[in-house]
Input
Amino acid sequence: MKRANRQTSTAPEPSETRLMRRVLVVSHNAAQRRIFAIQLRRARYEVLEAGSVEDALAVCARIEPDIVLSDWVMPGQTGLDLCRAFRASERSNHGYFVLLTSAHNAEDISRGLEAGADDFLTKPVIQQELMARLAAGERILRVEEELRASNAQLRAALERLRETQGAIDRDLREARKLQQGLVKQRLGRFGPMQLSLLLRPAGHIGGDLVGFFPIGEDRVGIYALDVSGHGVTAALLTAQLSVHLSGSSDQNVALRAAQTGTDAVSPSHLAHFFNNMMLEEMATDTYYTMIYADLNHLTGRLRMVQAGHPHPVLQRADGTVQPLGRGGMPIGVFEKPVFDEIDLVLEPGDRLLICSDGITEATNPAGRLLGSDGVEAIMRTNAFLSGNVFLESMAWSVSEYCRGERQDDISAVLLEYLAPAQPVSLPGG
Output
C-alpha cells in the first residue's frame, strides 16, 4: 500500500500539515498495547498492533510502519529478534525502531544497537518521554526522506548529465574524424625528398596541425602548428588555419602572389601575416606556435621560420644530431614579434624532425621532461627507421616515457632526403 492511499482511523484536522506517521506497537500484553494506542492516536499517529514477533513480521510484510515500539521481553522470539528481522527486510525507508526495556544496562544497549535499534525506553513509559522520543524519530525520518528526495533529484540530474555527455562524446568523436581529415596526406614524395606526418590528439580533438602543399614544380610548403590548449577552441582555430594553408591557391595565404609580387609568401612574411590576423580579426586570448618551411626539393635548400615552436632537430647522414633555431615568439601575443629565420641546405641522407611540445614536454611519473635530449636520443635509437614507421616508434617511446599518461597532443613532421640507392656487388659479378 502506498502512503498516499493509507486509510487512517483518525482523520487529521484541515489545518493539520504534519505527515501522519504509522506506528506499530508490539507487545504480548494487550493492556499495554491499548494504552500506547490511545496515547498515540491522541497525538495523531496511525496505530497498528501485534501481540508477537510473528504477528509483527506479518504486519510489516503487508504494510510498512514508519516507527516500531516493541517490548524486548516476549514469549518465544524477543524484540531483539524482531529488530534484526526488521532491519534485514526490504523497505522503502529506514524505519525507526524503539525497544522497550524494564531496565537499562550497558550490555543491553550494546546488543540492541548491534541489532539495529535506534532508541530505548524504560518501562513504565512516561507519556511525555514517549512523545519526545517519537518526535526525535520523526526528525530522523524527515531528514531521511529529504535526503532520499534529494538523491532522487541528483540521480535524475546525473542521468540527464550522462545523456548530455553521451551526446557530446558522440559529437566529439565525429569532430575527431573531421579533424583527422584535415591532414589529407600522411606521406608525400617530392623528388628525393620524403615527408611523413604524425597527428595524435590527447583527447577527442586537439590543437595541433601538420601538413604540406606544393608551391610550384620545385618547391613545397611544410607547416606545423600547436594552438594553446587542446579542446574545442583550439580545434576550431586549427580548422580555420587549415583553410589558410590548404592546397587551393585561392585560399592558401602562402600562395597569394599579390602580397609580395612573387610566387609565394616567404616564411617570415607568412608568420607576420598570421600574427596580424590573430590580433586584429580574432577576439581571443588563444595563441599558437608555428614552424613554416619553404623547401626546394631540387636543390635541398630549406628556408624556415620558427615562431615559439620547439626546435627542429637535424640529423645529418653521418648520424650527428643538432637542434636548430633560437625559438622566436608565438603568434597572436605581441604586436611586433620577433621570429627566428633558419636557412640551410639538406644533403642526401639528412633528415629533419619537427615536433610539438606534446613530445618535448612529455613527463614521466617522476616529473622529468623528455626534453630535446630525449628527442635526440629517440632519433639516434631509431636511426635505422624511416617515414611513418619512425614516427610510430617515436610516439610509442613517448607513451612509454609517460607510462600512458599523455596530457597533450603530439604532432610531428619528418623530412628525409633519401640517399640514392647504392649498387650491390653480386658474387662472381
